[in-house]
Design goal:
four-stranded parallel sheet; Rossmann fold; 2 domains; 13 helices
């Protein structure tokens, strides 16, 4: 089955198919009469609401399941949880702490003959559904993206990883500015560039510790919180490390004239982004948030498409 763990599970043809299906209006009722399990170890307002409504758009019935209800690898193994849910649902979507649970669940379904794809709603490694929404937003605002500069300022985390892969699929010049200790290691940078080279779309990726350097002529300025869920004990240390990495008016002034600002939310105004930028004319964060539903329609339609 066409599982989606991260963006690089999609080749260029599948990538374009997901985006086309996302924008299908009205969407085909591919999930009519079928359930979709939404398993959340970590809470999220945008992910839950967008995914539930996308399932409804496709004619299906979403079932929200808290992690405590199934107890992954506590009450039951992840494999048994997946097979139980597949008895009732066409798709298993999961938001988990440990990315390794996702391929374990998918492998168990495959071994047992269940035709239920697994979709990653977020893990410690990747956030592919958000990255699809980001590209939908970028294309809508900017048109063709190949050769344009996508600048991410902040922690080189799961969001940065999926966003970089999506930008490379678009043939963009991806620039990532992170402070020492919070950047991708050299081997991951090499792997991302190898991914870009394999695609043959002209995409490049570079790292920097200077936000001003990577913001120059950028078409997109993107940031994320400096302290994510589960990192609260590191907050003081992170605030000190990320000083000078705020996406503010001075940084936006260095970007291209038609540049847009994106943020995957929730936003901490005055930390990773200034209030004036978040609420300013370049900001498309609410359109971006709305496109989480658009993106999920495309992902779910692709995952359940005949011959996908």
């Amino acid at each position: 089955m066409p599982d989606l763990f991260d963006i690089d599970d999609l080749d260029p043809a599948a990538w374009e198919r997901v985006l086309r299906l996302a924008l299908d209006d009205p969407p085909q009722k591919r999930l009519a009469g079928q359930g979709v399990a939404l398993l959340f170890e970590k809470p999220s307002a945008r992910t839950r609401n967008s995914t539930e409504m996308a399932v409804v758009d496709l004619g299906g019935h979403p079932v929200y399941i808290q992690g405590s209800e199934v107890g992954l690898d506590v009450r039951k193994t992840a494999e048994d949880v997946a097979r139980t849910l597949a008895c009732y649902h066409r798709v298993l979507c999961a938001r988990v702490f440990d990315h390794r649970l996702l391929p374990r669940m998918a492998a168990a379904l495959s071994r047992s003959g269940f035709e239920a794809p697994v979709v990653n709603l977020l893990s410690d490694t990747a956030h592919p559904c958000q990255a699809v929404a980001d590209v939908v937003t970028m294309r809508e605002a900017l048109g063709r993206l190949d050769g344009r500069v996508l600048t991410y300022v902040g922690d080189a985390n799961n969001m940065a990883r999926s966003l970089a892969k999506a930008g490379l699929l678009e043939g963009m010049e991806v620039r990532i500015a992170s402070p020492a200790g919070y950047a991708f290691p050299a081997e991951e940078l090499a792997a991302l560039q190898a991914f870009a080279d394999q695609l043959g779309r002209g995409g490049t990726v570079q790292l920097s510790d200077d936000p001003s350097q990577v913001a120059k002529d950028a078409a997109v300025l993107y940031t994320d919180v400096w302290t994510s869920m589960g990192q609260e004990a590191e907050r003081a240390r992170r605030l000190a490390a990320f000083e000078g990495f705020t996406v503010d008016d001075d940084l936006v002034d260095q970007a291209a004239d038609d540049a847009i600002v994106l943020h995957c939310l929730p936003a901490h105004r005055g930390e990773e982004i200034s209030d004036s930028v978040l609420e300013g004319p370049r900001s498309l964060v609410w359109r971006q948030a709305a496109h989480r539903r658009t993106a999920m329609r495309g992902i779910l339609a692709w995952a359940t498409e005949d011959g996908a």
